[in-house]
Structure prediction request, 1420 residues.
Amino acid sequence: MDSAFIPNGVRRCAPGKFLVVLAVAGAVLLWGVYAMLLCWFKGLNQTNMNNNYGFALWIWADLAVIALGGGAFFTGFLRYIIGKDELKNIVNYAVLIGFICYSSALLILAIDIGQPLRGWFIFWHANVHSMLTEVAFCLSCYFGVLTIEYIPLILENRGIDRVPFLHHLGHNMHDIMAVFAATGAFLSFFHQGSLGGVAGVLFGRPFSYREGFFIWPWTFFLFTWSAAAYGPCFTLLITKITEAVTGKKLVKDNVVELLAKISGWMMVTYIIAKIVDTLYWANVTAPSKGLTLMDFYSHNAFYGVWILILEIVIGGIIPAAILITDKGRKSPAARTTAFVLAVIGVCVNRWVMVLQVMAAPVMTFDKWALYYPSWQEVATTILPVAYGVILIAISYRYLPIFPQEPELNPID
Amino acid sequence: MKAEENHGNTKKFGMVIDLDVCTGCGSCMVACMAENNVPFRKDESDKLKSITWMRVYKLSNGKPYPETDICYLPRPCQHCEGHEGHSPCVSVCPATATDYDMQTGIVSQIYTRCFGCRYCMAACPYHARYFNWYDPVWPKGMEKYLNPDVSVRMRGVVEKCSFCIQRYQAAKNRAFMEGKADIEEGDYQTACTQACPAGAITFGDLNNPAHAVYKLKKQPNAFRLLERLGTNPKIYYLSSREWVRRAGDNYLKNEGPAKIG
Amino acid sequence: MKIDRRSFLSLGIGVAAGTAFSPLPWKLMDDVSIWTQNWPWTPVPAKGESTWVNSVCTLCPGSCGISVRKVDDRGVKIEGMKDHPVNQGGICSLGLAGLQLLYSPDRVKTPLKRAGKRGEGKWVSISWDQAISEVAGKLKELITGGQAHTVAGITGGGPNTLSRLFKRFLTAYGSPNFFNIPSIDDSYRLALQMMNGATPDATVGLDLENTDFILSFGCGLLDGWGSPVHMFKTNTAWRKTQARVIQIEPRLSRTAAKAYQWIPITPGSEGALALGIANVLITESLYRKDFVDNYTSGFEGVVNASGELQKGFKQHVLDNFSPKAVSELTGLDPAAITLLAREFAKAKAPIALFGRGQGKLPGSMDEALAIHALNMLMGAINQKGGIYALPTPDSQTWPVVPPDAVADSGVKEPRLDGASSDAYSRLNQLPPAVLSGKPYPLNALLVMEANPLYTMSNSKAVQEAFDKIPLVVSFSSFMDETAQNSDLILPNHIYLERQEDAPLPAGFSKPVISLSKAVFKPLHNTQHAGDTLILLAKGLGGSVAETLPWKDFEACLKQAMGDKMEPLQKTGYWVNTGAVFPDGKTTFTTPSGKFEFASSAFCPGFTPVKIEGDASYPLLLIPYDTMRLASGYAANPPFDTKILEETILLHQDGLIEINPKTAQSMGLSENDRVLLQTPRGQANVLIHLEEGIMPGVIALPRGLGHTAYDAYIAGKGVNLNGLTGPVADPISGLDAAWGIKAKLSKA
Ligand SMILES: Nc1nc2c(c(=O)[nH]1)N[C@H]1C(S)=C(S)[C@@H](COP(=O)(O)OP(=O)(O)OC[C@H]3O[C@@H](n4cnc5c(=O)[nH]c(N)nc54)[C@H](O)[C@@H]3O)O[C@@H]1N2
Ligand SMILES: Nc1nc2c(c(=O)[nH]1)N[C@H]1C(S)=C(S)[C@@H](COP(=O)(O)OP(=O)(O)OC[C@H]3O[C@@H](n4cnc5c(=O)[nH]c(N)nc54)[C@H](O)[C@@H]3O)O[C@H]1N2
Ligand code: SF4
Ligand code: SF4
Ligand code: SF4
Ligand code: SF4
Ligand code: SF4
Ligand SMILES: [Mo]
Prediction:
């Protein structure tokens, strides 16, 4: 019966199988929703956050997911502004992933704040000096943009497309999508940056504090740059996973390689900037506050220099090196490895900028504080994953996400 | 406007805490909780979830027995001035729920405005800010002792030492009723200052040469916590012990507090 | 009209847009945020007229002046009373939390009679009439059976009017068994009695403000010793006058940390160190020769009962306590002992003090006499900066009523604690006496302002003794351990609800009496214990009623205070400015008429207190006191438990302090769970590594391990008294134990 809604020219699994996938993901989702309700009704005492860890697991997830969702704006930017036409074959998926990432981020923020019913104060009583204000505005606006970018895709559903009004709406929206893509890219540059600014402006926290340019700390630019660089890798990784799950090739190699190449070179430039930043911080900024690099990586049970190496070398230099070489890019195994490492790299960066910032002592008589999340935090952090799986499953089934799919998988 | 920008001519309340006489008894902590309607729970031993606007830290010189030495350090909110009132916490609050008052130098907190994002807590290097992880609950009947001059905070918002601002309001009201032009040093004293059995805390206007803090803060033994971060705090500490003064900030091996301006 | 898909959709969009642009969602959003600001379960304190009432805190012997802020009839804050001679506006964490005691829902709110088994916590409320007639009835029965002397009373109220009334009641009733909670105060009194010839009821005065060198043998001067806030103020003043505090104890207490110098020595060797210092003072002729020559006896020699001349203090010290000999006992370098003695002698007004921690236990008399001899050598007796035997304020203006025959014979029975007089209470001897039923069984126990079931050491024996007493009556409004294990509770008002006198705080230089007022009307159906005693007396009739003739306690107090009542009611305190202090030159009322270093009856020596435990217990467990823990009759209110360090209490577990070296040798690390065993008991504790404690010594705080009061203190940590036992001092018979041997094993 749902075959009426399945795009033309593609094959989808049996409804039963589809429902099983939905049910499994749905169960995880419900677990997350239960935890979320606990947080809302009983308060944040359901988490293991504390006065040292005002920001914890899910804020990391938030930042990570936004960085990974950066594939949407950057692919959009390349496609619509720079005019890399091939990318039209992956931009839909990039938008969908971005939509999932950003809606998840907003949901997490709604769980994270102590007074969700007053969340709108951030807009109403906005403080222009606060990076978080900038984040809130840009994030919400960009989510609006992503929604607008996602809608035409929904309207392309076979069933919906039959309604003339919606057909025209979808068509008209397509025509002006470049405007939104440009707006989205602009907004994204800012909020990615302001997320970086969140930690960078904390002049009371020498671990994260960075000098910078005008009102922005260097982390502002590093975050934007890293989201642009690493986001596409995530899009490509999810694409790869989708291909593996569906057992079909969905995007042509030249498209993948193009995006991977751009991403690789972005990573090269980013990681150089990151290394320069780290060196300056270690040799100038931190010593001016009486601290040495090793103060941040010793005297505790978890944070050693390994994390710096994991972030910069394993999660940065190596994937960048793979992706900028022809050989690396062309080898599916090497390429996928690079995607995975890149995703780890950017996630570690965001982890460090949220959790290690909170863990490192500032007063000499403070101790390192380590924390582990409660199940409620884990559940609410996994919730978006389940939600993402569901949304991807539904979108994939009913929407022409991958324009090259019929060509690559002809139905005889 | 001019006067506002020039914080130098307005009041600037602050404290000088003499660590040589502080005994770590904790009276200041209880005085603060009793004055400011701070709640309590059955288990408060997880200090990372416990609300203590005033917290007394125990510092150690780290030497083995019998060379060991300890010192207690009471830590209220430092009411950081930062640079032109941009204290670490105030400038980051997205909802303007905390404010730097240019007339008094007090960093205030508006509980009904705060929506609990905890960004300010991340910003404060002194751990002076506390989140209400729980609903405040008093055993039946005990809510009778709550101070009507201080609002009780709800779950989900951040709170911190206010320099007992209600006492400043009351002092100003009294002065007005009595036709006085201004309040005097003794008219406005914080609860912790008054209670301290050792008399370790001195409170007053750091800008007023007639106030005791004005002179005390200039003593050679005076220092502030994490001065090098540029937080510009209004709590000064006194200690005759070099290792205590050094513990007030981070120093590289070749540096000493004396060398730092 | 037919609704097709298109118009349905348009309608939907229209409605959505309409709603969005209407005020409705915005208004709702606003309302909802306002609701979060006024959650009905977050209390809003009522406004009202604000007033201040001055009174006195009697939660500890400190007797600080307090100002209570009231808003209408609610008490909202307790502060230190400015200008009060004791505390000068300062106040401790316990005093500050007093309103949590007042408003505690767990108070005993009405007379209670036990319903279930003892200690089971089942009670029925009874009327005051019934409560009085039940107790009076039982007491009458005992009189009839000739058993009046088998009744005992314990009070922790100190030498105030209520205590005196209680004692008077028991005496008139016919019981010799009136007990105070003993403390270091008793040892001071006894030392002054033996060496200075003070009367047993004299109060110890210390002119600490005027000393410039304080040799403290483990006194927790900043941990609640004496009148705690007063001591804090004094210590701050010492900073200004550059007086030096030398703290001698094996653990880096707060006092030690603030001291000019911390000298850790082997616990138990304090007396030896004192005599070692005396040795140097004598050898190097550093003592005040004029004073010793003119006003003392027993220094050069003592003539014993048979007329022979024996070695005096001097020779005894020279023979046995050379720095080298003392070094072996204390673990201190001989040079350090000599240096310390010289510093002590160099001071203008030095003083040596004894009484470990808060002075909760009387301690060794040998040690007390040895330390007091140092004061003597420096002439710090009855003079500026020294130690005095202060005249007892004359408040005994009550009529003398001759006892009836029952009372007369009853009070002549031996005391259950074996003490020959009632000047000192050997409370530690009570449990064995009760358990053995010798010299006679204890048939009824009345407990007022004390919680012996918790505060007495060897908890197990105390509990067993309690179980043997047929009738236990508590006067407590706190559901403390003793109240919980009693048969009847006749709840007193708590200190903020009643009027009474607070006597001279310990270690004060001037006679001060303060008046504690009824700041609040009693919250519950409680009754002033003084009124309860008077009603009980009336119920008993006869000479008991005649001996307590007042219509109520207020009348009794008025008569006791006499002309002091007026100034007391006016200012809240009375300072005896006209008091005539004994001076150093007037004769002492000792047999020799001089200050006695030694007599035929005693000579300060060093007989170490025999600490319990054999070689299978390799460690020494010592108690310590902290200002953040109430360990007496009052237990910690919630605020005070909140400020306890996580190195003392972690969730429900108490932590034991141990030197990292000792811990390492046993393979123990921070927060390890261990079984702590002593000859008297065992408990599970967590390890806390602390550099500031002597290797081989472990320490637990007093004040935890309650099984009663409320959920904010009960069940947390370990009651030290369950692990220790008393050691009877050979001179005083009071408890001289300062620790016990112990072992730790991984739990
Ligand atoms: N109103 C009030 N006052 C209090 C308290 C209280 O709850 N209410 N608490 C009190 C507490 S807990 C303490 S520890 C005290 C501190 O009181 P402290 O001064 O520490 O008193 P104690 O050691 O009880 O007794 C000291 C004096 O009491 C007298 N005394 C003791 N027993 C007897 C006796 O049997 N007969 C005679 N004639 N005199 C005796 C002696 O003269 C002795 O010198 O003060 C506190 N004062
Ligand atoms: N230092 C000293 N100790 C004494 C006496 C004394 O005169 N001086 N008197 C002794 C006598 S006579 C008796 S009967 C007993 C009475 O002994 P109890 O009746 O058994 O006890 P209280 O003295 O009523 O108990 C008051 C409690 O308050 C606590 N406390 C005191 N100051 C502070 C503080 O600042 N903060 C906190 N949190 N707690 C505090 C103490 O730990 C003490 O346990 O006490 C004895 N101990
Ligand atoms: S009350 Fe005074 S002495 Fe006690 S901890 Fe606070 S500052 Fe120190
Ligand atoms: S101490 Fe912390 S909370 Fe207080 S003003 Fe400074 S940064 Fe803000
Ligand atoms: S928690 Fe409250 S005060 Fe702090 S930054 Fe957020 S809104 Fe502002
Ligand atoms: S100044 Fe007032 S609010 Fe701040 S710590 Fe002291 S008592 Fe608390
Ligand atoms: S020291 Fe004692 S008398 Fe003074 S306030 Fe504290 S508990 Fe009350
Ligand atoms: Mo007492």
Q: What stands out?
A: Chain C is about 30% helix and 20% strand.
